[in-house]
Amino acid sequence: MVSTEGFTHSATPDTTVSGLLVALARHLDTHRELPELTSATVVRYATPSRVQAQLDSDTRLPKVAAGLLSWAGTLAEAAAFAWRTDYSTHLEVTGRLPEGAEVLVYTGVDTGVLPDLAVGARVPLPWATLHAWAALPASSRGGAA
Hints:
Blueprint: H1 17-30, E1 37-43, E2 50-55, H2 61-72, E3 76-84, E4 89-96, E5 102-109, E6 122-124, H3 127-134
Parallel strand pairs: 2-5
Antiparallel strand pairs: 1-2, 3-4, 3-6, 4-5
Helix pairs in contact: 2-3
């Protein structure tokens, strides 16, 4: 379980491109233990606008799960999901930064993870599953889960 105790956020976050990027930069500066990002994108067409951040491209399941759990521990209203495209499976954590801005942190994993997940599907991912994956041997790329 991820605690949201102690989190406060503004009722009206700055959803401009610069406001969202500044909120992300402040969050990264405050939480230097978070795993490195490959990219950050402001998504203005989403309602509400949000920041999407992609974790480092290492797809080893324990590292991905641990990284997403690290992020979840710093977000209010955190939730985890898995989704599938034609060629890949992605894991994500969503939540709010302290300023109230919405954030989605994601990365791809081996397609053997959640092999029964249908293309186009997006499903909630239990925290217990992420914790179990984070505890796997460091070299594991996953497989049927």
